[in-house]
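Q: I'm building a small set of examples for a reading group on sequence design. Run inverse folding on the following structure and report the sequence directly after it, with nothing in between.
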């Protein structure tokens, strides 16, 4: 492993740039690459929050929408691990600007974190952004791999209120939610494939990264009940009820639409896909909701306060 202080430049070996390196997914991937001895350049919205990792350096501050700053930040990198930007009305332009900057900087390969069911007419409005980003990457001429992850397992307890109620217009649809750790391990396997010339290539591949089972939100509530020792219920909402129950957050219309349509995509069956990509890429089973809750009791701690 490269024993390099984070403030020192890494000059040996192909460089991998990791965006969102201070976040839940990018940070996990950066740490895994560093442990594998891969020189890493860390990109994040707040450089002061970037982790200190052996063999890793912090890039100059750059936002996705600033093409010149992104070119400087990515100069010398061979591979870009591109975590999608925070949701916004301008997210597709930010993504395409970042992709164009990467190509201009000489990046040869992009591994992009997309979303399961990405399509131009996806029910989940944010999944449409991912489709447009994928389309732009395909036409850029750069080698690429798309990792389409499902809902996060962490989101299920987080979206359950302290009153023990999970609300949303998900109907009886199913979702194969996935753990951050599984996405990070799968992404790392894809990123490390270039270090082994005899190994498989993931170029032009699209992987659905899911958990091992698709469950209804009522079944998720039952699992939360078992984990927390109190009754958790799922209350299906109509579209009108869903918008009304979220009106108090003061979020802009486009953001609330994203929240509501994510549940409606479940109801429409667009998140029911169960893929074997996680075990194929990582060599181990994907994490179930029950296992996730056993391993992360803090995720549902707020449900234990109102017995």
């Amino acid at each position: 492993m490269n024993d390099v202080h984070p403030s020192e430049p890494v000059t040996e070996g192909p460089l991998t740039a990791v965006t969102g390196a201070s976040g839940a997914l990018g940070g996990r991937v950066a740490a895994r690459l560093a442990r594998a001895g891969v020189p890493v350049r860390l990109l994040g919205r707040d450089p002061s929050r970037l982790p200190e990792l052996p063999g890793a350096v912090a890039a100059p501050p750059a936002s996705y929408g600033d093409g010149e700053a992104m070119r400087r930040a990515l100069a010398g990198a061979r591979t870009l691990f591109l975590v999608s930007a925070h949701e916004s009305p301008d997210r597709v332009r930010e993504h395409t600007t970042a992709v164009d900057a990467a190509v201009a900087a000489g990046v040869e390969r992009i591994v992009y974190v997309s979303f399961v069911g990405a399509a131009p007419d996806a029910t989940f409005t944010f999944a449409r952004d991912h489709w447009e980003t994928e389309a732009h990457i395909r036409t850029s001429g750069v080698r690429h791999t798309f990792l389409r992850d499902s809902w996060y397992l962490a989101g299920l307890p987080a979206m359950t209120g302290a009153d023990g109620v999970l609300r949303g217009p998900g109907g009886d649809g199913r979702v194969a939610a996935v753990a951050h750790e599984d996405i990070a391990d799968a992404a790392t396997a894809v990123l490390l494939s270039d270090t082994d010339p005899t190994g498989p290539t993931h170029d032009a591949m699209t992987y659905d990264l899911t958990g091992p089972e698709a469950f209804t939100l009522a079944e998720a509530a039952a699992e939360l009940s078992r984990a927390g020792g109190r009754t958790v219920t799922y209350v299906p909402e109509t579209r009108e009820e869903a918008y009304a129950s979220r009106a108090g957050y003061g979020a802009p219309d486009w953001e609330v639409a994203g929240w509501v349509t994510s549940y409606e995509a479940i109801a429409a069956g667009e998140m029911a896909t169960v893929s074997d990509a996680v075990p194929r890429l990582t060599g181990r089973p994907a994490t179930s909701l029950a296992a996730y809750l056993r391993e992360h009791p803090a995720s549902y701690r707020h449900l234990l306060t109102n017995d």
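The two ends are 49 Å apart (CA to CA).
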